[in-house]
Amino acid sequence: MVFLSKATAARDGRADQVRPGEGGEGTHDEPLHVASRLHAFNRFELKYLVPVEQAADIRDELAERMDRDLHSPVGGYGVWSLYYDTPQLRFYWEKIEGLKFRRKLRIRHYGDLDGITDESPVCVEIKQRVNRVTQKRRITLSYGAARQLCDGREMVPHSAKESAFIQEVLELVVRLNLQPTAVTGYQREALVGRDADTGLRVTFDRRVRGRDRDFHFGIETPQNRFTIPPHLSVMEIKVNERTPHWITDLTARRDLNLVRISKYVQSIEAFGLAPRSVFHVNEADCPPPTPTEAQPPRQRPAQDAPMKAGAK
Asked: How high is the mean pLDDT of the chain?
């Protein structure tokens, strides 16, 4: 049988020959020239916890062989995520127990939160781990539509090829009774590989904060607090297949150690929603470096406050 487009079938009165997957509640036709709002990718992620000053030195060294991400201005950009979990924190415990298959649902906004509205673009994302591979699938929606889908548990307009993902998100939210659980935010600087290293991406996340209430991104006075000591930065090396040998040499030369750290887990434990695990980063265990004569003290910016201090 030759399948017809929905428009052609309707015109010719042959609705029984519409391509499978077209039509259905909430779907709409999408012109071929329009870029898809749906994205998916797989990669390996290696994480390191490094002092902010050392991170700046590493970034400068990496810049000799990598390019700054086009979306990463000098000083970086904000990344804010609202995580959903069950009342029993199923996704949190799957991470702690190290299940080979686990996933998380979140709404993510890139950039400043000032002036965010229901029309602002955000990503609804399912991040999952299959053995050692991190998989991400996400769709770009307006903030209002994302909240309608994840909070209101209602179908939102989408194209036929976006239907499977939208249905999966809605099924997860309803079946597991997912609820807004924690917000994380940080300032990110990103570098991307060039030439033979085009699949390489390195990010530096600093001023990692979170909160366990006031989940709307547009709230004027959020009660954020540092969930990772502010003098530390999370460095992530992300590759599609193999890690370039020169990156491996760099981490060895700088004596960097792999860590198992999750910003979501840090927020859950920092606010007492679950007991602190062996993976929790405590400020007492990671004190700021002591200034020496060779390294004169630098005036610390206001955001480098104790972990209990709030920050927008």
From this structure: 85
Domains detected in the chain: 36-270 (3.20.100.30)
What pLDDT is stored for residue 276 in this prediction?
86
Please spell the DSSP secondary structure of 241-278, one letter per residue: S---HHHHHHHHHTT--B----HHHHHHHHTTSS---T
Angle at 225 between CA 220 and CA 229, to 5 degrees: 145
Rounded to two decimals, the pTM is 0.81
> If you search the block for the tokens 């904000």, which residue do you land on?
78
DSSP per-residue letters across 30-95:
--TTSPPSEEEEEEEEEEEEEEHHHHHHHHHHHTTTEEE-TT--TT-EEEEEEEEE-TT-HHHHHH
- Distance in angstroms (rounded) separating the CA atoms of residues 278 and 77: 30
Burial of 271 (0-12, 13-18, 19+ CB in 10 A): middle
Q: Give the number of other Cβ atoms within 10 Å of residue 305's Cβ.
A: 14
Check whether 70 has a pLDDT greater than 70. yes
Each residue's pLDDT tens digit, 270-289: 999 998 887 788 766 677 76
Contact 187, 207 (CB under 8 A): yes
Type of residue found at 268: I
Which of 269, 267, 203, 230 lies closest to 69, judged by CA? 203
Segment 34-45 shows an average pLDDT of 79
> The tokens 């997957």 sit on which residue?
21
